[in-house]
Amino acid sequence: MLETKTTRVTRDESGVILETGDGRTISAQEVLVAAGRTPRTGDIGLDSVGLKSGAWIETDDTMLVPGFDWLYAAGDVTNRALLTHQGKYQARAAGDVIAARAAGAAVSDAPWGTHVATADHEAVPQVTFTDPEIASFGLTAAAARRNGYDIRVVDYEIGHVAGASVRADGYAGTARMVVDEKRKVVLGMTFVGPDVSELLQAATIAVVAEVPVDRLWHAVPAYPTVNEVWLRLPEGYGRPSPSASDEPREILRTGRL
Ligand SMILES: Cc1cc2nc3c(=O)[nH]c(=O)nc-3n(C[C@H](O)[C@H](O)[C@H](O)COP(=O)(O)OP(=O)(O)OC[C@H]3O[C@@H](n4cnc5c(N)ncnc54)[C@H](O)[C@@H]3O)c2cc1C
Asked: How far apart are the first and last CA of the chain?
């Protein structure tokens, strides 16, 4: 019900009762409030340096505000990726680049360099700590399509892996892998289920390292763990053609890895 005002919310032993402006009553187990965020920059003197008071603060990937050589911003105020871990990541890049620039040292500001927060763009992990949890990394299918990628989506019921039955009776959850069809690398993962946040770091490494799906076949998950979903997803995607795997085999044979 869009464009509907909530006029009253009460809780009783059966759950939560919402009353709407048009006189309807809705009963629910819980209420999730998604209120969004606004920058709290109205009282820090942004206008005194020509920036808009109360607005988000734009930065480049070294966290430097365009038009300045001394003003940096990190965290939610940049509107890049509004999460604690991304704010800390941005602060690490900013701290290092401020020190490097002050010392006249080399600055590594190409994508994935020491002094940039490249991951903010398409490589952000996040967990919605509901029950069950929703853990995601990188791009959803919709975001990937919006960004112009040609993608393939693989879905899997996490409850089907042996490790899930060890974790809980009747474990139910889903996993989705979004693959960039051009490069055959994972662009994003979404897991829904109990404790799925613990699956997230493997997704983070697979996406940031641009691990090809045919190499994921060799990242063998221990049996019986919920991580076996990392076996089922590449299976769902399909085995690589022999030519696609020639190069990695050669590297292994010659001992360069
Ligand atoms: C309900 C909720 C749940 C969240 N859960 C998660 C989560 O589970 N995981 C996660 O990663 N992120 C979560 N976040 C997001 C996370 O809180 C923010 O991304 C993170 O705190 C941003 O850090 P920050 O340092 O940029 O800003 P903040 O943490 O907001 O810090 C800014 C500080 O500046 C202070 N300040 C403001 N104005 C002034 C002034 N004029 N002078 C001096 N001090 C000032 C503020 O009081 C505040 O202490 C959640 C956010 C909300 C609202």
From this structure: 56
